[in-house]
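Cross-posting from the modeling subforum.

Setting up a comparison between two proteins and wanted a second pair of eyes on the formatting. Protein 1 (sequence, then structure tokens):
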Amino acid sequence: MGRWQLWVNPRVAEGDRWHSSRVGLVRSPAILGDHLVSELRELARASDDDMALARAGQFLNKKLRGFECERRLLLRLADSARVMLLLQRTIESVLGMNDQLDSEIREIWDRNLESERTEFTREIDKILRNEEKLEVEMGDDNQQLQVLTLLKHQLDHI
């Protein structure tokens, strides 16, 4: 796990789901990607040469940073299509390295990602059903414009 510690750890706090000191599944406010991050981290820990896994982790961490740091759930919703696609491609890439694209592991990882998407959707639904929370999430005109702009960008790239 030497390269993970060199390439991923310096980018994150020690308590973060990405940090090599964490073991097993670490749940985060981001919800999406929790299982995959844990699997990557554990594979890197078990590997004699974690270079490819550490690079994948470093790349994914960089691409997810904005999503993970965003506290407004509606902005995360607007960005969730990009994040899901990125997570699916990472699964394919990592399992492809080990020639496991058609394996039971793939099915498990896909199910875990789908479960996280369902959980994420439930969190969105809770906000949509609570007028007070929805008003806070919607924010001011600038924040509403930010959500709409991000949604439009996502639709343009689907």
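Protein 2 (same layout):
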Amino acid sequence: MRVLLLETSPGVATEVSAELEAAGHAVERCHDAGDDAFACNGLLEGHNCPLEEGIDVAVALTDGATADGVRCTLRRHVPLVIGDDEDVPFAEFATARAAGSLLDALDAAVATPLARHGAAALRSERSVLEMHGYDSTAATATVVRNGTTDLLVHLDPGIVVSKQVADILSVRVVGAVRDIDPYARIIDVSVQDADHSPINA
């Protein structure tokens, strides 16, 4: 995975970086070691913001916790892992805490459904179902990340719907999710019990 390591100052979380690299993860940073603490890689000529190139998960642990980069990370809906004993202003936005294994916490964070995306998808799904005379009571929607830039949306209307309605569901839900997350490159939608293939948008 591509992991964004958020640090108080460039290069301080060396042990965390070494653990991640030893596990085969690519470690990215907002700042290169020795660079100015203010100007991030997104501002420096010849550098690129790692978030724009795609990140699977971000890490801000006690020995390298920082608010620098956290706002950008959260605005792009990238999962955030923080330390288990960490009391920071952004703790409520964290996807997972590294209570034991950091590597396990990363896997858990990446697999965690996106609650805000899912809520938007469900609202749109229920609206379409009710518009076409279906009972939306049992409808569910789940949205998860697929790699660094894509999203997977699974809709279960709770009933069998026509292919036409399934197609409308896909289009409307893609729009609702993209309103939440304009950074997603591809949004794949599948509709349970509907005989159609996922669409890309």
